[in-house]
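Q: Fold this one first, please.
A: Sequence and structure below.
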Amino acid sequence: MWHLRGIAHPAAQFHALEMTAERAGSAMACPFASSAEYEASVIQARRAAGIYGPRRQRRMMLFAAAMLFIAVAAALIL
């Protein structure tokens, strides 16, 4: 037998329609004001997950190497 869905359960269908509209409205909302904020958030999340590997402190290592070189050079000169 044929049943018309709109007539059989109008309250359930109305509720389902409301829920679908609510989800569709929230899907359009974006918590970021610009694409730069979004990209910064993505990079921060990836760093937290360890995707980019450990942070290397290149400047500090170069500074330490330069200071060591200067100290060795000064010791050789004196």
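Q: Good. Now the second chain.
A: Here it is, same layout.
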Amino acid sequence: MADKTQWATAVVTVGAGRGFVVGNRRERFVVTAGHCLPELPPYHAASYTEERTYGALLGPIDGDQIVCAECLFADPIADIAVLGLPTVKSSTTRHKLTKR
């Protein structure tokens, strides 16, 4: 069984709410309530990464929200969202996201 400190750090701040980190050695995701996002992303596969990415959304419970995240899945009926690392390649876009 993992120690309690590891479990405590798995809970993060997402906007005005909370989420928890899941994943493996290669990838990590944050599962949260959809209403914790500033707004839900567009509902079509042709949306731009920038439309699904939120700047300064994630952070530790007692700290500042400084981590950007991309919404990979959102269901407004079930009120659930899955966030991951942004796939933004442009440094200009990355700079804009951190200013949001």
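Q: Anything worth noting on the second one?
A: The helical segments are 4-9, 49-52, 91-99.
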